[in-house]
Design goal:
- The complex is a heterodimer of chains A (309) and B (246).
- By secondary structure, chain A is α/β, with parallel strands linked by helices.
- Chain A has 2 domains: 161 residues, Rossmann fold (3-Layer(aba) Sandwich); 121 residues, TPP-binding domain (Rossmann fold, 3-Layer(aba) Sandwich).
- Helix content of chain A is 25%, strand content 28%.
- In chain A, the strands form 4 sheets. A 7-stranded parallel β-sheet of chain A has the order 7-10-6-1-4-5-11, sandwiched between helices. In chain A, strands 14-13-15-16-17 form a 5-stranded parallel β-sheet.
- In chain A, strand 2 and strand 3 form a beta hairpin.
- In chain A, helix 2 packs across helix 3 and helix 4 packs parallel to helix 7.
- The mean pLDDT of chain A is 95.
- Chain B is an alpha/beta fold.
- Chain B has a single domain, classed as HUPs (Rossmann fold).
- Chain B has 6 helices and 15 strands.
- The longest helix of chain B has 18 residues.
- Chain B is globular.
- Classes of the chains: A alpha/beta (309), B alpha/beta (246).
- At the A-B interface, helix 2, helix 3, strand 7, strand 8 and strand 9 of A face helix 1, helix 3, helix 4, strand 9 and strand 10 of B.
- The structure holds flavin-adenine dinucleotide.
């Protein structure tokens, strides 16, 4: 038995999400871990250090999920994989379900911890509950919720083989890519620290204090839905039941009331800090640490205190 | 233009989440159901806008039992032309996708729309699965779409940014925020929805590949530790020494 992991790289190195997926696969303890890497790769991409024994490198850059699905199937066949693991990010989520259908096997998305046999735990009801899901087929395809497992190092080096396969024709043509943030911060779904702000900030011109705190912490910024809807912040920062579901280690909510739809997307954060002028704000009930106070006074002080660390 | 929009029934966002049948099933008693927001606000409304501008029809499709009919009527009230319900109680996403594909296969839809995920299952799987079942291209997380003849151009969220893509001919898309603005059905829409066709079709034999063995509610949070507004340094100390998070 073996596990195949689908890995994305950036400048030849496995991404953070990729290293997490490989760590997860290794610690499933069901066999050797083989990584499929499409695109650029330098050395073993850092994958040996998280327990991957073999890397299958497909050097062409491919973006069409139907082609990437065919590629994954071919790799799974070549190593006789019993489990195929993706990161539950935007790319993984568009390829993994295709692979499961093509191979006629069970698929579990958004897995949050190591399975027991073929029973996987995943979030449902936008984080308001979890479900244990049994896969009834011999082979299973899964995707892992980013930042739910973490990266576990495992000394070693992976062998690298060139891999080729017939992946069919490209049908979705990529005309261009615009990065969401050019400030070098981690994409929101993968971020370990998030500073989020709501209507309490009063207007887009006041976001400087939020960004300062985020920068001091090495955090990514997020926002509540009305803030996205009013165009104070870009849509991709919107978290909650109808936005992103995230689970960072630290979530700092500034001037957000904590409506049930907002909490749904963030209540699995490991530590929640709430800063709100209203001591009755519902968010305090979901928080680990709270400050009743004005964000315009508290945030600059907090930023200073962090810088002093 | 012949468009198909996948519509799913979801519990209202303020619903109490509880389980029954030995925690194997969602307890629907007293729950208010809505059209899954991603299906309604983004997929359905954008499909309707395209047909309003260029002509054609918007058919909605739902896999579910008769309890789905009220939310299907809502979709018709917003402006869909007609609706199909596949009469089944699906237990996993592959079953939903296979049933929809079996139905849609010989109907030559130009574009099949779905929301990016449901707010109850959160799988983000059905549209990709439909695409695979029907051997169609798939564009995930679309935030905009323009159609010019058989060429569609879309913006979509990718990891760490936005892709601009184009695709020729039929394809499947999943819609997310940005695609359209929510529409409130007006009186005329609500009246006409009553007489628009809702076709119920038998489910073909499709079996699930996964099953939920148990739902669990998260443990209750402990008390929130309050820190004085003038003492930001104390919060930083707690985060470092107690929570060990920074
Ligand atoms: C179907 C549906 C889906 C939804 N999905 C989402 C979702 O995905 N995500 C989401 O966020 N919302 C969602 N909502 C909206 C949600 O119900 C709330 O309306 C929203 O989260 C409120 O945003 P807010 O906390 O920024 O604003 P408000 O509720 O206006 O809260 C602002 C808070 O800031 C505090 N405040 C004001 N001034 C200051 C100050 N100077 N310093 C400190 N605190 C201050 C106030 O006390 C208040 O608590 C959804 C709603 C519906 C109906």
């Amino acid at each position: 038995m073996s596990v195949l992991v689908y890995i994305q790289t950036q400048e030849g190195k496995a991404t953070k999400a990729g290293l997490e997926v490989a760590s997860f696969a290794k610690n499933m303890n069901v066999g050797d871990v083989t990584a499929l890497v499409p695109g650029t790769l330098s050395g073993d991409g850092g994958l040996g250090s998280v327990g991957v024994s073999k890397v299958l490198h497909f050097s062409e850059g491919v973006t069409d999920n139907s082609q990437l699905s065919k590629l994954t199937q071919a790799a799974a066949q070549s190593v006789d994989a019993s489990t195929i693991v993706f990161s539950g990010n935007n790319d993984g989520n568009s390829i993994a379900p295709r692979v499961a259908i093509a191979m006629n096997v069970g698929y579990v998305s958004g897995v949050t911890c190591l399975p027991e046999g073929k029973t996987f735990t995943r979030n449902v009801f936008s984080g308001k509950a979890t479900a244990a899901v049994n896969v009834m087929s011999d082979v299973c395809v899964i995707s892992i919720t980013p930042n739910s497992y973490g990266i576990k190092s495992d000394a070693g080096e992976a062998s690298v083989e060139t891999f080729s396969a017939d992946i069919g024709a490209q049908r979705v043509v990529l005309n261009g890519f615009t990065p969401t943030s050019n400030d070098g911060s981690v994409p929101l779904p993968e971020a370990e620290r998030v500073v989020s702000a709501g209507r309490g900030l009063k207007g887009p011109e006041n976001w400087g204090i939020v960004e300062d705190l985020a920068r001091a912490l090495g955090a990514t910024t997020a926002c509540s839905r009305p803030v996205g809807d009013m165009g104070w912040r870009p849509h991709h920062e919107h978290v909650g039941q109808t936005g992103l579901t995230i689970r960072p280690d630290l979530y700092i909510a500034c001037g957000i009331s904590g409506a049930i739809q907002h909490l749904a997307g963030v209540n699995q954060s490991k530590v929640i800090v709430v800063i709100n002028t209203d001591p009755e704000a519902p968010f305090f009930k979901a928080a680990d640490y709270g400050i009743v106070g004005d964000v315009f006074e508290v945030l600059p002080k907090l930023t200073e205190a962090i810088k002093e660390l | 233009m012949k468009l198909l929009v996948c519509i799913s029934k979801a519990p209202d966002t303020t619903s109490r989440i509880a389980f029954t049948d030995g925690d194997k099933r969602f307890d629907e008693s007293g729950v208010q159901f809505i059209v899954n927001p991603y299906d309604e606000w983004y997929a359905l409304v954008r499909a309707i806008e395209l047909v309003e501008a260029q002509g054609g029809s918007v058919t909605t499709i739902t896999v579910g039992d008769a309890t789905c009919d009220p939310i299907i009527r809502k979709a018709l009230a917003i402006g869909a032309s007609d609706a199909v319900r596949i009469d089944a109680n699906p237990t996993d996403s592959s079953q939903v996708a296979r049933l929809i594909s079996n139905y849609a296969n010989d109907k030559s839809y130009d574009i099949i729309f779905a929301g990016k995920e449901t707010i109850n299952h959160n799988s983000s799987a059905v549209p990709a699965m439909i695409a695979e079942c029907m051997d169609l291209p798939y564009v995930a997380l679309a935030t905009s779409i323009d159609v010019d003849g058989d060429l569609s151009t879309l913006n979509c969220e990718s990891t760490g940014g936005t892709n601009n893509v184009s695709v020729k001919g039929s394809f499947v898309l999943s819609a997310t925020k940005g695609m359209a603005e929510q529409r409130i059905p007006n009186m005329r829409g609500i009246m006409s929805a009553r007489t628009k066709p809702l076709t119920v079709v038998e489910a073909s034999g499709v079996t699930a590949t996964t099953e939920v063995s148990k739902f669990t509610l998260p443990p209750a949070k402990g008390d929130c530790v309050m820190v004085d507004a003038d003492n930001a340094a104390e919060l930083v100390r707690l985060l470092r020494e107690e929570a060990k998070i920074i």
